[in-house]
Amino acid sequence: MRRVQQTSASQLSVLIQHAKKTFPSEAIKEQFLEVIDLYPDIIARDILIEVAEELDRLVALRSLKEMIYEWFATIVIQNRRRAFGLKESEHSYHMIFCGNPGTGKTTVARLMGRLFHALGVLSRGHLVEVERADLVGEYIGHTAQRTRELIRRAEGGILFIDEAYALTRGGEKDFGREAIDTLVKSMEDLRHRFILILAGYETEMNMFLRTNPGLPSRFPIILTFPDYQLEELLDIAERMSEVQEYRLDRSARIKLSEILRQEIQTGTRPFSNARFVRNVVERAIRRHAVRTVKSPALSRETLMTLKAEDFSAES
Ligand SMILES: Nc1ncnc2c1ncn2[C@@H]1O[C@H](COP(=O)(O)OP(=O)(O)OP(=O)(O)O)[C@@H](O)[C@H]1O
Ligand SMILES: [Mg+2]
């Protein structure tokens, strides 16, 4: 699957496409640390290290990690060029995220905000996450007003619009159009003051872009978040458990992989990927508690180990 598409020949996307071929390995964190060490004048080192570690902990999403590293390198070099009085190239970071639920869109958007903030691109780096209902008002002019207010809240950070395709749901007369027009205007007027990310299912987002001819050229970057493979979902479950100081024994891994296979094949669509895994793991932690709470003299091992009987699909 093509994960990074170009909709316009912006300088940034060309640079990224080129750099993609030269990215050396999986270990994004080491790449970051090497650069951070080379530039002692980078101010927000600790935040950058944290971001690198969090990126590293994300399972799969290789193309995306590569792209983030390339932005990182580009911004570090731009900052260095500025110090030499060289011209800075114009970059637009407005983006479209395509993907099913639970594929990591919000997580990545939040990380990007922190990264851009640490590198001085965004003054705050926070994420304002909204959907159609937050933008669309009840009378003419109301939508523009609400949209402008949300853009104001997102200044210095990222305005993330989930299921953005819903803005064109109602056709020509719908107020969703007013929201789009206001967004497009602000993207240009406040170009360096906030980043706009429109997110949604791939098919719907493609349709959304086709029905709004002015939009594709305004979003040089389209990132696709693919559904996770079974093995990746299992890794995600292990990492989620690890963070909370639990681990899955062999029986639990087998049970969980059965649950996941079942859900992917026959469950309600669309499959909610890592979000489904999170729910199953949280449920397992509760069931583990019920299973162990009356045992005398609990060992550290027992307190940490999730077993097959703790796992079930329904939450
Ligand atoms: N690659 C990954 N590795 C580890 N954890 C992940 C990964 N992707 C997602 N997660 C976890 O799965 C959960 C859901 O992710 P997130 O909310 O970012 O997905 P989303 O695409 O925004 O979903 P939705 O469309 O439902 O809003 C979060 O707890 C997140 O930390
Ligand atoms: Mg989300």
TrEMBL record:
Q: Which residues form the signal peptide?
A: none
MF terms (GO), sorted A to Z? ATP binding; ATP hydrolysis activity
Q: Which keywords, in A-to-Z order, does the entry hold? A: ATP-binding, Nucleotide-binding
Record domain AAA+ ATPase: where = 91-227
Q: Which PANTHER family match?
A: AAA-TYPE ATPASE FAMILY PROTEIN / ANKYRIN REPEAT FAMILY PROTEIN, AAA-TYPE ATPASE FAMILY PROTEIN _ ANKYRIN REPEAT FAMILY PROTEIN
- UniProt record similarity statement: Belongs to the CbxX/CfxQ family.
Name the record gives this protein? Stage V sporulation protein whose disruption leads to the production of immature spores (SpoVK)
Q: Which organism is it from?
A: Candidatus Carbonibacillus altaicus
